[in-house]
Design goal:
The protein is an alpha/beta fold and 728 residues long. It contains 23 helices and 25 strands.
Length: 728
């Protein structure tokens, strides 16, 4: 089993070695003082042993290993955990890198033995172990040490051919001197497996609506320590009542709760689309709207309770919504806007005038009675292509219950939802949409055509246009590519100081490298003041707050990473630090003419450097110039977003040590990562429907859930040996 390792267990040594080799760079990028000696022996080995006769479950062994790492402050570090269950003393080996993979810090392990001894005593008390013979335990530890050392040598040698740096470190034994607890251990093992099986299924549908048996096996392999436990847990999941085999060839799987939720979302969308009585009165609109924009305006202000608009990047969706706002308000409708992120909501509000917030904030306010909606309410959802099935389901259920109208606006070809389900694409397939295809953002006509090609999936053609125009640049190494991106950005800042620009990358690590290089260049030009270090915060929904060292200097470009109404900032807002004194950071928003806000660093420290941002943060952004650092994890959707944010100029940089040439770059950047929903696997669903006429359509004889019941029943008859694990 691995911990904080991206590759296979047998390649864990490579990631640990890369972290060690890049320690100084990681420190600099994360704002940690890079002075001092480099850690030349970062890898430590620990061994945890159980008493003879004890048979801990794989879940308990994993829990024990992670508890031990957490006690030492190594829970975020790279680790390989190997179990030996074929010995009289079942035990674990933990090989852990003491260098933090993000910050480059070396963990403080001066009192490791004392901490481990205290942890072992607490573990014994927690698990009902009564150690009455510490001396015997010490002797057993000594007897086991030689055996464990030999095994540790084999593990470390297997990892790196004998070249893995680090000592053959101490051991701590966990032993039971009381009566055997076999029955207790077996019951706990069974309970652990049931809970673990449910947890794995929940995890599989967190970011994707469907999955395969291979996906299950991959998750099981991360949670188990040997073949016996792997087979037991896999069988437990495959027989789980919540597992669903979807119609078709039976290769795609999902869970009962996901199928029910997405079928309900689909059915509610169809029902709302057929419901009328929500038309806005005609009125005067801008004569600057294109034909597509006018058609979309008529569609969203029409009588239907649900309307969808698909607009390409830079096609003027916000302009159209601004005209729709005038018609809705003139007809007595209250209009509320929402988007997945705070910065996208801010963009919707600035671009259209619609009062906007995040989807999470809006649905929470409605559920808790802080926001009231009804038949005279229009809910406009921007960047709807990034909204997951769960979020869309909740929003539609609240709207249909209150009788409110919903307008979905987005582009399913831009960034996919991070969580499960391509809800917007599925709803557009179900009810149709108005389309805005004329691109207006780019000032150069051929670049508008290139953006259209990116939207249509013709990534290679679009990139060749940019290459022929001299906008694609290859470099020997990643470091040179980072330097070139920053140099191009810095030159633009000098030549056109009043224009806007941004650097984009697909990973946080690349963004850190770009920000570090940008600060180095600005400091060499005398544009930064003296550094002051703060402990910045990173708040995440699914993890405790993380703190990290951040160097701030007057002149720094900063990004706020958490919404705050008091400050008037969103997650993604960018500003310039103009003063830092008496515990306050004074940040100017929106350029040289923008307001300066005082940020009390005792209350708000959700800050990062903002010279470069991730492509995910950039969706919905428009700026004059964009400089993109390519990487292999990009796909055609990320490429489309990154190469369509600019008005005047975009440049794309890549490294030869990552891409062999332009052809390899194109091959990587045009790859497709599809996002599906469970509804895609029911063959009678209507697909690629044109927008319906404004007159009420005759209702379908069968609802979506009724069709699903019939289709699944028929499929079960044809495949009697397969178990759906689902009753609708």
């Amino acid at each position: 089993m691995t911990r904080n390792i991206m590759s296979r267990a047998e390649d864990a040594w490579f990631e640990m070695l890369e972290t060690a080799n890049n320690q100084q760079r990681l420190k600099s990028a994360s704002g940690v003082d890079a002075r001092g000696r480099k850690n030349t022996s970062p890898v430590q080995h620990l061994s945890l042993s159980w008493a003879p006769g004890e048979n801990p479950s794989p879940a308990l062994m994993q829990q024990t290993a992670l508890s031990c790492l957490t006690r030492l402050g190594l829970q975020e570090h790279e680790a390989l955990i190997v179990a030996h269950t074929d010995k009289e003393h079942q035990h674990l080996h933990i090989v852990v890198n003491t260098i933090h993979p993000l910050t480059g810090r070396t963990a403080e392990l001066s009192f490791a033995k004392r901490e481990l001894s205290a942890w072992a005593a607490e573990y014994e008390r927690e698990h009902g172990v009564h150690c009455t013979a510490r001396g015997t335990n010490a002797k057993m530890r000594a007897d086991l040490k030689a055996e464990r050392a030999t095994e540790a040598e084999r593990i470390l040698d297997a990892l790196a051919g004998g070249d893995m740096p680090g000592p053959r470190a101490p051991y701590i034994a966990v032993k039971d001197q009381s009566l055997p607890r076999g029955e207790w251990m077996q019951a706990k093992a069974d309970a652990d497996l049931d809970g673990l099986a449910s947890a794995i299924l929940d995890r599989l549908v967190k970011n994707d609506s469907t999955f395969t048996r291979q996906d299950i096996a991959r998750q099981v392999s991360e949670e188990t320590l040997d073949e016996r436990h792997f087979a037991t847990l896999l069988a437990k999941i495959e027989g789980h009542p919540d597992l669903v085999h979807l119609p078709g060839d039976g290769k795609r799987l999902s869970t009962r709760s996901m199928v029910i939720m997405e079928s309900e979302m689909s059915e509610v969308a169809r029902s709302m689309h057929g419901r009328t009585g929500f038309a806005a009165a005609p009125g005067l609109v801008s004569d600057r709207l294109s034909h597509d924009q006018r058609a979309a305006l008529a569609h969203v202000t029409g009588p239907g309770q649900l309307a969808a608009v698909v607009g390409l990047a830079g096609s003027g969706k916000s302009t159209m919504l601004g005209e729709a706002l005038k018609l809705w308000e003139a007809s007595g409708f209250e209009v509320r806007g929402a988007a997945l992120s705070g910065i996208a909501a801010e963009g919707l509000q600035q671009g259209s005038g619609i009062r906007s917030s995040t989807i999470h904030a809006l649905t929470w306010a409605i559920e808790n009675g802080h926001e009231s909606i009804g038949p005279k309410t229009v809910l406009v959802v921007d960047e709807a292509g990034m909204v997951s099935s769960r979020q869309m389901h909740k929003l539609l259920m609240l709207a249909t219950k209150a009788g409110a109208k919903v307008v979905l606006v987005g582009d399913p070809e831009q960034l996919r939802p991070i969580e499960a389900g391509a809800a917007f694409r599925a709803i557009v397939d179900e009810v149709g949409a108005a389309k805005i295809s004329e691109i207006r953002r780019q000032n150069v006509l051929w670049q508008r055509a290139a953006t259209a090609k990116l939207a249509q999936g013709h990534t290679e053609d679009a990139l060749r246009h940019y290459q022929e125009a001299g906008n694609v640049h290859g470099h020997r190494t990643k470091d040179e590519a980072v330097g070139a991106v920053v140099a191009a950005w810095s030159l633009g800042q000098k030549d056109r100081p009043d224009s806007s620009s941004i650097m984009l990358a697909s990973t946080n690590a690349a963004v850190l490298a770009l920000n570090a290089e940008a600060r180095r260049v600005r400091r060499s030009e005398g544009r930064l003041g003296a550094d002051k270090r703060i402990q910045a915060w990173e708040d995440r929904f699914d993890a405790p707050r993380r703190t990290f060292a951040l160097k701030l200097a007057v002149g720094d470009q900063l990004m706020f990473t958490k919404n705050d109404k008091r400050l008037g900032v969103k997650n993604g807002t960018i500003g310039t630090l103009v003063a830092l004194e008496k515990g306050f950071a004074f940040v100017q928003l929106g350029g040289k003419k923008g307001p300066v806000i005082p940020v009390n660093l005792a209350v708000y420290r959700n800050l990062r450097h903002g010279y470069a941002v991730t492509i995910h943060k950039a969706q919905g952004m428009t700026t004059d110039r964009v400089h993109v650092l390519a990487s292999k994890n990009m796909d055609r959707n990320l490429t489309y977003v990154a190469m369509s944010r600019h008005r005047d100029q975009v440049s794309l940089h890549y490294a030869a040590d990552e891409f062999a040439g332009f052809g390899a770059l194109v091959h990587a950047l045009k790859k497709e990562r599809l996002k599906d929903t469970t509804m895609d696997y029911f063959p009678d669903r209507p697909r690629e429907m044109e927008p319906r006429p404004e007159a009420p359509a005759s209702p379908s004889p069968l609802s979506t859930s009724e069709r699903i019941r019939l289709e699944m029943a028929a499929w079960r008859k044809r495949n009697p040996s397969r178990d759906f694990g689902l009753e609708l």
